Amino acid sequence: MIDNLFSFKRPSNEMPNDFKVNSVERKELKFKLEEYSKKVIEIPLIINGKEVRTGDMGEVRMPHNHKHILANYHKAGEKEISMAVEASREAKKEWENMPWQMRALVFKKAAALIAGPYRQVMNAVTMLGQSKNAYQAEIEAVCELVDFFEFNTHYISKMYKEQPDSTRTVINQLDYRPLEGFVFAVTPFNFTAIGGNLPSAPAMVGNTVVWKPALTAVYSNYFVMKILQEAGLPSGVINFIPGDGAKVADVVLKKDDLAGIHFTGSTTVFNSMWKKVAQNLEKYKTYPKIVGETGGKDFVVVHPSADNNEVVTGLIRGAYEYQGQKCSAASRAYIPESKWAEIKNSLIKEVKNIKVGPVEEFSNFVNAVIDQKAFDKIENYIDYARKSPEAEIIAGGTCDDTKGYFISPTLILTENPKFKTMVEEIFGPVLTIFVYPDDEFEQTLKLVNETSPYGLTGSIFAKDRQAQLKAIKELRQAAGNFYVNDKPTTAIVGQQPFGGARASGTNDKAGAEQNLSRWISPRVVKETLVPAKDYKYPFMDE
Ligand SMILES: NC(=O)c1ccc[n+]([C@@H]2O[C@H](COP(=O)([O-])OP(=O)(O)OC[C@H]3O[C@@H](n4cnc5c(N)ncnc54)[C@H](O)[C@@H]3O)[C@@H](O)[C@H]2O)c1
Ligand SMILES: N[C@@H](CCC=O)C(=O)O
Which ligand is nearest to the CA of 480? Predict the structure, then answer.
């Protein structure tokens, strides 16, 4: 680096295109959708910068057209998993000693490539492989991923400048060491951006990483890996190993130099990994740092002073965007009796009009859920509600997996505030509603707080400032991201750092300084300029 003081200024958020009819970006995207639909690609592992083929194959199919194969990928076996760990060890020395600005430039360049020449490729592969509509793909596979890379490089600039106090005779320096060992990044299917961020954040501060992507997102995640390589990521810094989660974790979590886990996914899987770490604790050279962002059962509370149109829009977008497959999706709502009749009518009318279908047709708001397993799980919840005397399905409820995994946006009304679908994460387009008496707003807030084990996101719709205040206070521990007069989804990097506690994770706020600080192990170097030459204290008699 020419100037060691050079740093990266705070960026602005990448703005999404809206793909209006006849716009250039719409034409480009349609072209890329067609191009990638026509080919079947092969996805190898990438270990130490090289493509590795195992012959143990899996298929990537379009969730909205499951006969259509997009790619065949190779799965890592025990040998390749160990190769990936070894490659990360080998790459560490050069990478951690590279000037941090040079490391950061890899991610700055990746951001520029994604925002520019690969923009519609990232959108197309995310749309086809994960069944997202154009806008849902654009806001995350492009904008959020660009923001993660841009903001994190800026946060590092800020963090590295922080130094402890020194005096005339004692100079103290903080050495921002990466962790001693490698980091294991395990990523979910639902956000391409999370796939890109989880291995990259620890890498930016000098760590090397073994990345296990979700098999249902391996298609878009492979493109992220290729872009990072094109941006100059040195071999072995991030090693891309698709494979069975439990199998990969079993091998990786036994390595004595495991130094950190960067996980996003379900609470069950996170708990299982934490338990394995505990079992292997004596093996490790250092305590692995464990960061995990997990499930949610996100709420919307409506106060009698709320605006009905705003509520209906917030509920529909919050619950059904990306088929409710967001950890932050609105999945339980509390509505006052006085407003219910009007909100119910509008909700049912709007929900019935929502178009469901493949991503290539831009009029579809809802597309397919990710795979057969997700489809079956969501259908089971809907069936449970259909059969229960405590609940009624007031809109949607149809499930059809003939061509793609389509579930219509579903509204369940229950009289039991602790009904199964008010408590458990469904991860599909299902919203359950409980209607409360207007004069029980405060009791309802208590109920919201105590109903589910999660603590991720939530929102209050109210014009009344006192009501907002009560909700903000009473629900302080109920959500790591709390929204006023808005849906509980779509956190933006740099604006609403994202994450929650309780069963929703360690709340280390992806894309924020808090997260980056987990991937360093600071060392303080003290130099005494005029060292003492006599051990006795001045007050002592001769
Ligand atoms: N809090 C957040 O920020 C956030 C963000 C996105 C998704 N999520 C959560 O993620 C879940 C949906 O994503 P998903 O279906 O990909 O989650 P998942 O837990 O099924 O899978 C996540 C990752 O873990 C791997 N895995 C599976 N079994 C494993 C095991 N036994 N050991 C180690 N790894 C294993 C998977 O292959 C995948 O790479 C939801 O619960 C959602 O709420 C949370
Ligand atoms: N960043 C996302 C949540 C990620 C979980 O799936 C949001 O706020 O919608």
Answer: 1
